[in-house]
UniProtKB/TrEMBL annotation:
It is an enzyme of class 1 (oxidoreductase). Catalyzes the NADPH-dependent reduction of glutamyl-tRNA(Glu) to glutamate 1-semialdehyde (GSA). Residues 320-413 form the Tetrapyrrole biosynthesis glutamyl-tRNA reductase dimerisation domain. Pfam families: GlutR_dimer (PF00745), GlutR_N (PF05201), Shikimate_DH (PF01488). One of its GO terms (biological process) is protoporphyrinogen IX biosynthetic process from glutamate. It comes from the Bacteria. Residues 15-160 form the Glutamyl-tRNA reductase N-terminal domain. Residues 180-305 form the Quinate/shikimate 5-dehydrogenase/glutamyl-tRNA reductase domain. This is Glutamyl-tRNA reductase. Possesses an unusual extended V-shaped dimeric structure with each monomer consisting of three distinct domains arranged along a curved 'spinal' alpha-helix. The N-terminal catalytic domain specifically recognizes the glutamate moiety of the substrate. The second domain is the NADPH-binding domain, and the third C-terminal domain is responsible for dimerization. It comes from Aquaticitalea lipolytica. The keyword Transcription regulation does not apply. The record marks 103 as: Important for activity.
Length: 420
């Protein structure tokens, strides 16, 4: 199937930017927090966009949806972020129809992740689909596509070892600490921000550093306390942030703020301080590097760190790609079926009209007319005829579009094909 028309004149697009061409600062300009995502979806609804999926992580921001032209989606993104169209054009990508589908499969399956085999994006896709559904912005096409991508990612995770070793930013950050900080078990570690990345980082810190001097701070204290209780860690008030920074040897920042929350003025200590900024947009001001005792590492730096397992993970890419191909083929088969479903439905209704008219005629002609038996026989014949046409339309050797037009013409059918 060469084109993915869902509504007349619209196409399926994937537009966005990622770590591949956009650095952390630019990605920060286009990042969407939860409120911005909701505002974007609301604007899409008001703009009569039929179906739309929005994802924004530390590594990428993407929109998957239907539009007459990709600029409609680009405008939605720029209207709800600090990014401009000019910036977008410099670093972004636009995929259409078949390429857009292939892109979502690679992203959801961890093959396009900043750290190969990172499957954290799949939970984002699931959540994005749920939110879009609440806005009535999830048509059968995207809903089925997301489910297919989830299926592929599950198979890749279970049938390959592509996710062995450091497969996420949170793990890579802890690995970096282990590789660069001596006597890490006895260092004071402060984790500022307990969102998803913060939670995962905390879990990896506890598991791999054996450190009992980990303190958590979050703007909403009860969220930090919920995590701290799980690992028996210390929680401090947000108002104590500066004091705790100066008590720390290692500071990990994983907040969701749109502007830097830590700068050089927060740091009064003269002892060595390692800062890891795992946030997009950046939540640590670059001016901290003006201090001789401070080392600043951003998540883009972490992705460059390779370990021995990376080459092993790369060996599993061909198998992962084969799994994607299989699931994608199943999706395309479903799509082909959806393409001619309205015509088959219209044909069935037309044949049913013939049946009703003929039964009415025979009922008047035959005195002991067996209504029940005639109904069963007629329905069976209708089902066999429609099944025959459906099998014909599934044949790869025939042109589906030409056959559909012929069926419509012969039986004088009127079909509605708004949703494939």
């Amino acid at each position: 199937m060469e084109q993915y028309h869902i509504s007349k004149g619209t196409y399926f697009y994937a537009i966005g930017l990622s770590y591949k061409k956009a650095d952390a600062e630019i990605r920060g300009h286009f990042s969407l927090d939860e409120n911005a995502k909701l505002a974007l979806l609301k604007q899409a609804k008001e703009s009569n966009i039929e179906s739309l999926l929005v994802t924004s992580t530390c590594n990428r921001t993407e929109l998957y949806g239907f539009a007459e032209h990709p600029y409609q989606l680009i405008k939605l993104l720029c209207d709800n972020t600090k990014g401009t169209v000019e910036e977008f054009q410099e670093v972004a990508y636009i995929y259409k129809n078949r390429e857009a589908i292939a892109h979502m499969f690679r992203v959801g399956s961890g093959l396009d992740s900043q750290i190969l085999g990172d499957f954290e994006i799949i939970s984002q896709l699931k959540n994005s689909a749920r939110v879009s559904k609440k806005f009535a912005l999830l048509n059968p096409f995207i809903e089925r596509l997301v489910n297919s991508v989830i299926q592929a990612s599950k198979r890749i995770k279970t049938e390959t070892n592509i996710s062995s070793g450091a497969t996420s930013v949170s793990f890579a950050s802890v690995q970096y600490i282990l590789n660069t900080v001596e006597d890490v078990t006895n260092k004071n570690i402060l984790l500022f921000g307990t969102g998803k990345i913060g939670r995962n980082t905390c879990e990896n810190l506890v598991k791999h550093t054996k450190n009992e001097h980990i303190t958590l701070i979050n703007r909403t204290k009860d969220k930090a306390e919920a995590i701290a209780g799980k690992f028996n860690l210390l929680v401090k008030d947000y108002s104590n942030l500066q004091e705790e920074i100066n008590n720390s040897d290692i500071l990990i920042v994983a907040t969701g703020a749109q502007n830097p929350t830590v700068d050089k003025h927060c740091i009064q200590t003269k002892k060595p301080l390692l800062i890891l900024d795992l946030s997009i947009p950046k939540n640590v001001n670059d001016n901290v590097t003006e201090l001789d005792n401070v080392s600043l590492i951003h998540l883009d730096d972490l992705s460059q760190i390779t370990d021995k397992t990376l080459e092993k993970r790369k060996q599993h890419i061909p198998v992962a790609e084969q799994i994607i191909k299989e699931v994608n083929t199943e999706f395309n088969d479903w799509l082909e079926t959806r393409k001619f479903a309205p015509t088959i439905k219209a044909l069935k209704l037309k044949l049913n009209d013939f049946k009703i008219a003929e039964l009415d005629t025979q009922r008047k002609k035959i005195s002991n007319f067996n209504e029940e038996q005639a109904e069963i026989i007629s329905n069976n014949i209708i089902q066999k005829i429609t099944n025959h046409f459906a099998h014909h339309l599934k044949d790869d050797d025939i042109s589906t579009d030409e056959s559909l037009e012929l069926i419509k013409k012969v039986f004088q059918l009127e079909t509605t094909t708004k949703h494939v």
